[in-house]
Description:
heterodimer, A: alpha/beta, 35% helix, B: mainly alpha, globular
Amino acid sequence: MTAGTAVGTTAGTAAGTTAGTTAGTTAETTAGTTTAVAFSSVTKSFGAVRAVDGMDLVIRRGETVALLGRNGAGKSTTVSLLLGLDEPDGGLVRLFDAEPARAVAAGRVGAMLQDTRPVPRVTVRELVGFVARTYPDPLPVDEVLALAGLTELADRRADRLSGGQAQRVRFTVALAGNPELLVLDEPTAALDVEAREAFWDSMRRYARGGNTVLFSTHYLEEADEHADRIVVVDSGRVLADGTAEELKRAAGGFTVSFDLGGRPSEGAAALPGVSAVEIRGDRARLRSDDPDATVLELAARGLVRRLEVTPVSLNDAFLSLTSPEQSR
Amino acid sequence: MITAYVRLEVRRTLRDAGFAISSVGVPVMMYLLFTNLGGQNSAAYKTAAMVGMAAYGALGAALSLGTGVAEDKSSGWLRQLRITPMTPRQVVTGRALTGTVVVLPAILAVLLAGGLVNGVRLDAWQWAVTALALWAGSLPFTLLGLGNGYRLSAQTTGVVNVACNLGLAVVGGLWFPVGLFPEWLATLSSYTPTNRFSELGRSVAEGTAPEAAALTVLAVWAALFGAYAAASYRRSARTT
C-alpha cells in the first residue's frame, strides 16, 4: 500500500477521505445522526498524569478508524472515556449525539477491552449467550461463534483457553449484541499471524454492514491496511487525522536521498522544498514537500549521485509526528 | 435481562469447589461435631445449634459473594458488564439476587443434617418457616459482602470477609450460646445482626413468633449494609 509513484500518491488522497462517509448512508433502523463518536476538548488526568489532554475527534457512522499511538499515548483512556467507563475532567464525549451511558444502555455499542481476563467458571457459549441476551437485537449465538471460529470451543470453559482463543472470545463478546459501534482496544495483541488475518476478515465483514469500527493499535501496518482513516494520538492529543496518504504528505511528502561523495552537506537544508536533513555516513536524506524543485536544484549544483526519490513511509510519518523536534 | 445475569452468576458460584466446601461442607461438619462430641447433646441444643450453624453457613455464603465480586473487578468482568446494556443498578441487583440464591444450599444442608442425622423433629411448617426466615435474614450479610467486594481489592476482601465472618459469628453467638458470655458481651451480642439473625430462625424453630426487636435490629443493619454496598459500588465505578 505504501508503494506507488509520486503522482499516484498525491492523486489518491482526496478519494480516500470520503470513502468512509458513503458507507454511512446505509443507516437503517436508527434515526437522524450521522455522527457516531464526538469528543470536544476532552481532558482526563490520573493524579499528576494528563492521560487525555484536549482531545477533539469526530467519527462518522460507517467509518473504520484506527487510533494509532505508542504505549502510553492515551489510547486506552480515550477508549474508556468513549465507553463511559471514565468521566472526563473537562470537555464533552458524545456517542450518537447522547451521553455514552445512554448509547451503551440502548445496546448500540460493543467493545473489546484490553487487559481483561476471561470470566471464570462459565463456558464460551454461556458467556456469549448471556451477553447477547442483554442487547435488544443480538446476532444468533451460533452465528457469532462461527464468525470468530469458536464453534468447536463453545462448550469449553472460557478460563481454560489459550491466549489467542481467549482473545477471540473477547471479540465475540463485543460482537454478540450486533452493535452499531464496535470499539476494539488493541484487538490483535495476543494473536498469531493466521489468527490476525481471520480476525481482520471478520472485522471487515462486520464494518461492511454499515457499522462503525474504532480500533486502537500501535502497529502502523494494521492502521494502514484496515482503517479508512487514521487518528494519530500522542500525549493525549490528536496529532494528525486523515488517510494514510494524507499523513505521509503531512509529514513532508518525500525523501530525496543521494551520495555526498565527500562534499560538505551544509547547503542541503536551504534547498527548495526541504524540511529536514539527515546525514548517514556519506549519504544525505532530505525530506521534501516538493521533490521536483529539490532535484532540479541538486542537478544545477551537480550533486546528483545515486539519486533516489521515495514517498515517506507511514513509519517515517508517524515518527516525525510523534517527535516534533525531529521534523523541523 | 436480570434473570439471565442471575442464572449466569449462580452457575459460576455453584461451580466453585471452594465455595461448596467453605459455605456448605464446613458448617455441616461443625454442626455434627459440636452436637455429637460435646457434653450437651439434648434435643433442644441440637435444634438451637442447627439453626445457629445454618445461620453461620448462610453468613459465610453471603460474604463469599463479595470475594467473587472483588475477583470480577480485578479480572475486568465488571468493566465488561458496564458496557453491556445492563444498567449499574441491574448489575448490583442481580448480584444481590445471586446472593439470595447461593445462601440456600448452606441453609438447607445444615437443616438436612439436623433432621436426618441428629433427629431434630419439627412440624413441617416449622421447617419451612425456619428455612425461609434464615433465607430472608441473610440479606444484610449479602449486602455487607457486596459492599466489601465492590470497595476492596480481591485479597483484602478475602481477609476482611473472614474477619467479618468470624467476628460476627462468635460475638453473635452462632458458635457458642450467648448464655456462656459475660454480661457485657451478651449485651453487645444482642446488637449484632448475626445474633438477631439466628434468633429469628430459633424462635421459629421453637414455635414462637420472632420478637419485634430482632426484626428491627436486622432491618437497621440491612439498611446500613445496603447503603455501604451502594456507596462502594459507586466508588468502584469511579476508580476502575
